[in-house]
TrEMBL record, chains A, B, C, D:
InterPro entries: AGPR, AGPR_dimerisation_dom, AGPR_type-1, NAD(P)-bd_dom_sf, Semialdehyde_DH_NAD-bd. This is N-acetyl-gamma-glutamyl-phosphate reductase. It catalyses: N-acetyl-L-glutamate 5-semialdehyde + phosphate + NADP(+) = N-acetyl-L-glutamyl 5-phosphate + NADPH + H(+). GO terms for biological process: L-arginine biosynthetic process.
Length: 341, 341, 341, 341
């Protein structure tokens, strides 16, 4: 029951990560690879690490023959993505990895992203792609919006706690330490090795755009408006996001809530009470590690979540959603163990 | 007016950093280098980067001729340091870089460090070595206790704010991202390149020992007990600590307080309002960069401080203190610009 | 037709890499995990990145019930390995990843490794585990000796050329740049992040031990003694070895020889003439990329090979050999695409 | 006797390195900083690590008042540099850090760099800036051409050996491992952290441009044409170049030749026979470490040289040359010890 997918935006990191995962996926095959500016090239020229694969040549998206495609992954900048997704035939399911369809309210989108939404009607049909929390909706969806990678990390730490009402929604502080691949493959001075290596700094100040996803999802979970303080930091490593969340609540209750919630989840590992996760222990995998550590101040607790931004944070999540949307085993192709060291 | 110093514990990173700084210091020369287990070796065998210097051979500390020594730097583990410092002749000034003399209350020391203080009488004479805050005491001191490098970073961000009463002492959360050289040169599995690189994790949980310094210094500054939540994270870089401090207060007042307090300080740079510092911009230098960024939630503010743990956080601070104790220009030998990239 | 394997030395990096690969191998399951000093622990405590796997507890090797084991991987120091392999029941096939059985002449072994061979009889039965060159012998073997990871890299570049007689055997210079994980997980000062990062140096001077493997294999391929100059360098990256081999011959003939030899090989990719490979494009995979670049001096050619020392250089190679020895598809479990970035 | 300098191209890495070194230079002060595209900005906005310095604002080069300037450093791309240097008043001494004036024969320049030389008359007056080998010429020069950083590294290893005739000029192979800052600060995909980190590859194939400097200087030293094979590799570290040179000669004679030649040199350290240098032990300094290691094959020898590409390889060398040209102590401002770790 092999299904055929197209990847639009195959020359970026999330595109390459999709191809890497699909390369050993038992039920998916790649029918089209699009990268407008590199149309006509072989993927091996763009991503030499994938040169052993027998893949279609890169094409422009408007030349794709959609007749044999079951599902399209769009890994494009958000504005472009809205336009391109709108042009895909209705019978092809779509997973969009950009920020183009993550916020249900287009006015909120426009406030955070600074330009008008180019596919407002389509937005109404989009399901938020946090697989573990929208599984049934995703199964039934035609359009799924992949989460922000930072947003996903914070949500794995906190969504079950807000849903269960075991933390104070007004006292949430989220600090993150994030790898550089999240910034993508575009050539920017700030992302040069010489600029990024050997140090750290906070970025996205004063308010990183993924904050908008926290607002919507946390508010929904808590049943009331929630505003968090979110401060991401760049670290000199390619992959990985660690969320350190400061909350008020009872550490044991928090740990029990997470352990129960994630017990049946194949990709969510809750560490023993008092242990904290490391990003390097999930690298290249679809796993998320969650930990809870109390504080000497009664009522203050640190909740940690670690995942790989390119995998569980975007392309692995997308494949998980594709599995759901296409009626495949949810874990198919995704049980690759993390790469360490 | 050249002064002569001894370095005890010259085979560790803080020892090497002292030698690096003294190498171009106009008024200090090295009279003795001690490293018990490496006695008899040349420093170039232990630290090839210093091979161009004409230095005394490494010796055991008990063979030092103290007669020509004006000041000793002790860069040793804390228990050992208490014993060795206690044996240095009274006329020799001492700067201890360990945790051995940082806490004025030996009972508190014993609670946090787990063993009995070995020089409790000497402790009474020790001055806390945060140069910008204890300058006059340091000038007059015979024994100065170098600060914890994490502790120093947090204090540069917050001490002036607690002294001025412009933040709520009950609502302080300090996250840090720290380079690995702070763990020293001892061979530990957890500090191998393969273990540390390409990722991050929180360490020192549930309560890092430097928390005890925050307790004492913040309490003194606020005039009442202050308990902070402190969570350090390891990053794959050798040098640098970034403190991200979450406080309640008015962002403008906080920025103004820091700008005024640090205006005359030669090593403390306050960034323009809304900007955040990066550790790579202070690497190898005695500078600390401080930044203030508001939050969308009224009353919440992020205060950042970045310094090099081996320089401003320990050995550079120690040289600054030596300058004060020996009547030299406080900045002598310390105006080296950061190394970037 | 699932086969059951034991891993002896499961607490080191090559042990962990075996487990990572077997985790998604369709035909292998793990029956025993041994790590003498960590017996009684769960693997998740030693390698948190493998915590999602349902694995046997770590045991001492002498408590293993061999009755259900088809094949044992020994990932131990070489002296120890000779002893332990000698005690494994004859009906269990063995792949040794140490240097214990790589050299057919025990006198040569003793000269390079400095101690007496502890299983000289067994040595006579050992097959050298370079899969692509000893495939038939490996299929029939009971004991296979995994290659040195540096040795394998150089051989992928040069063995076909020496066999075909297209390069001068007296004019070979091999420089390598190697990742740090090859040094293993033992705590050594020289392998600390602070020591290794941000620089490079040549190591294993004047003659690295893997030179002995070149001597034997290159001599066999050329039909006469061959002595190369081999100089490995450490780079601040965990995985990967790049061999830059300087030879005399005709660049086009060299490229054609390699392209023809590796054409049918599933794991060996020969780049287009004039292109050079990068270690980051094979990371975490069983692929080796080979490239040929001429020089302006007629008759001088550079032949490059890049592989992942933990995968194609040791544990991936071992699984490939296990597939051969157990009658499985040679590529089973090994088609994982490289992890980039 | 303070001298005033201008830095043209202050927004690149070599420009920043010049400022870093001059910041603590006792006899130099900065009179003008030029960066055409960033004119009007403060240097702290471009290089926050230099924010503690009191520096002139960035200006366009054509607005510089040359009347108070003794010497100009030009840190620009080579074509641009030829034009701009040609427009500097004759009484201002000039050190050009580009490739614009390194090759005495403009036809050779045009062959390697692919465009016509824009200041051929000026070229005739240029002195090659390898301080230790052209000291007297540099003292007398008005225009000095800084060397390529790779070229300098190879020359420190081999020039004295070719001059002394102790190695075979026809049998030289130079492999290098180089840090990424040599590629400059321009935003290029290939220099992103995600692309560069965690691996290595050879670059500049088939013939890196610095080969042309080897041709000229080695030919001059040997008194006959010399063609080397030169293969640089990129490593994931910002600073440092390690040259591994394979030569034919007598190891002891080679070591003795280097030790004697560099004995009086303040910045050249020859390691004990059999030891190899590491780039991390010269980082941020003007030192070059040279080592000699024999090979088991009689007559083959490895000669290593390590330096910091931004310091001894370009900006440190430039300051050393400025000291010579301005009649200052040659080592003034340059005795900064390397930064390790």
């Amino acid at each position: 029951m092999t299904k055929t997918v197209a990847i639009i935006g195959a020359s970026g990191y999330t595109g390459a990560e999709l191809i890497r995962l699909i390369a050993t996926h038992p039920d998916l095959e790649i029918g089209a690879l699009c990268a407008d500016r590199k149309a006509g090239m072989r993927l091996a020229e763009v991503f030499p690490h994938l040169r052993h694969l027998d893949l279609p040549e890169l094409t422009k998206v408007d030349t794709v023959d959609w007749s044999g495609i079951d599902l399209a992954f769009a890994a494009l900048p958000h504005g472009t993505s809205q336009q391109i997704v709108a042009a895909i035939p209705e019978r092809v399911k779509v997973i969009d990895l950009s920020a183009g369809f993550r916020l249900s309210d287009t006015a909120v989108y426009e406030r955070w992203y600074g330009d008008a939404h180019r596919a407002p009607e389509l937005q109404k049909t989009a399901v938020y792609g946090l697989s573990e929390f929208y599984r049934d909706d995703i199964r039934a969806a035609r359009l799924v919006a992949g989460t922000g990678c930072n947003a996903a990390t914070g949500m794995f730490a906190l969504l079950p706690l807000l849903q269960a009402g075991v933390i104070d929604p007004d006292e949430i502080i989220i600090d993150m330490v994030c790898g550089v691949s999240g910034a993508g493959r575009a050539a920017k001075e700030a992302m040069l090795h010489s600029e990024v290596s050997e140090g750290t700094h906070a970025y996205g100040l004063p308010q990183h755009r993924h904050t908008s996803e926290f607002d919507e999802q946390f508010g929904k979970a808590a049943g009331r408006p929630v505003e968090v303080t979110f401060t991401p930091h760049l670290m000199p490593a390619n992959r990985g996001i660690l969320a350190t969340c400061h909350v008020r609540g009872d550490a044991d209750e928090i740990h029990a809530t997470l352990a129960e919630r994630y017990g049946p989840e194949p990709f969510c590992e809750v560490l023993p009470m008092g242990e904290a996760p490391a990003t390097r222990h999930v690298r290249g995998s679809n796993f998320v590690h969650v930990g809870v550590v109390g504080d000497r101040r009664s009522g203050r607790v640190r909740v940690f979540a670690a995942l790989d931004n390119l995998t569980k944070g975007s392309s692995g999540q997308a494949v998980q959603n594709a599995n759901l949307m296409l009626g495949l085993d949810e874990t198919a192709g995704l049980m690759l163990a993390p790469l360490f060291p």
